[in-house]
């Protein structure tokens, strides 16, 4: 199965569907990523704070898959944004991953009270220039943070990885992305199992119509909306199911019905608001 790619503003391509490893314990990460690579995933999303970069790296090493066929993302944790710390942090992540470079390195949260996210972004640009990450971007940044990054450096992040699913569509960030040539990565694409997306009639009805599961409908919605998505599961059959989303297409009316699930007021949020994470 060929996963479509999206061209980032860095000139590099990213597989639009990947595998996320948030909350996959360190001792299970190698097994989970090995299974994901066997299923066919070639894009893995981890972070220093997940504590499982070594397991991800071990699975990659054992897979024998050529490095240039893989896309690996990791993230700079919040307590390492200041001074030269991002340089030490990427080196530690690369060491744990057993890689010479990552494909994408992100500032994990803006943590605006500390006011170090612009410094972090400047250091990420240096890290990119040193060849330690092919592309760089951010996560959980709101338009006010993105504006400031561009004002101070003139460089638009390749992606902003934000909580995004049908009940929380973050239209202000999407608008900023559209105007500035930045791509959106959806974290918590299935609502992390905390928001009852699968019971919404627009999702359940589309699933019956296409003979697929509600999870497959929601993943398909992300793909058709142009988002980059990496659902997480440690169960092999769900990994397979979440990857098997290229044999059907949601017609425009089904996409529109799922679009209409957006709460608009933020009440669909299942994670932390970026202004509250410090
Ligand atoms: P998700 O929306 O992918 O939900 C995962 C949960 O959904 C699973 O634990 C399981 O309970 C359920 N699920 C998965 N597949 C299913 C299926 N086929 N049928 C039924 N239920 C299914 O949430 P997530 O893991 O938080 O998000 C995906 C990835 O996004 C993470 O693994 C991580 O890589 C990234 N992420 C980033 C941030 C950030 O701050 N940048 C925060 C959270 C997650």
Features:
10 helices; NADP; two-stranded antiparallel sheet; alpha/beta; single chain; 278 residues
Give the arrangement of secondary structure elements.
Elements (H helix, E strand, L loop, with lengths): L4 E3 L5 E3 L3 E2 L5 H14 L3 E3 L7 H11 L7 E6 L8 H13 L4 E6 L9 H13 L3 E7 L3 H11 L5 E5 L7 H10 L2 E5 L13 H10 L3 H11 L3 E2 L6 H8 L8 H8 L19
Parallel strand pairs: 3-4, 4-5, 5-6, 6-7, 7-8, 8-9, 9-10
Antiparallel strand pairs: 1-2
Helix pairs in contact: 1-2, 1-9, 2-3, 4-5, 7-8
Bound molecules: nicotinamide-adenine-dinucleotide.
The site of nicotinamide-adenine-dinucleotide has 25 residues, from helix 9.
What does it look like?
- The protein is of the alpha/beta class.
- It has a domain at 5-191 and 227-232: NADP-dependent oxidoreductase domain (TIM Barrel, Alpha-Beta Barrel), CATH 3.20.20.100.
- The protein contains 10 helices and 10 strands.
- The strands form 2 sheets. Strands 3-4-5-6-7-8-9-10 form an 8-stranded parallel sheet. A two-stranded antiparallel ribbon has the order 1-2.
- α1 runs parallel beside α2, α1 (26-39) packs across α9 (236-243) and α7 crosses α8.
- The longest helix is centred in the first third of the chain and has 14 residues, at 26-39.
- It is globular, with a radius of gyration of 18 Å.
- The N and C termini lie far apart (41 Å).
- Residues 20-22, 45, 108, 139-140, 161, 187-193, 213, 215, 230-233, 238, 241-242, 271 line the site of nicotinamide-adenine-dinucleotide.
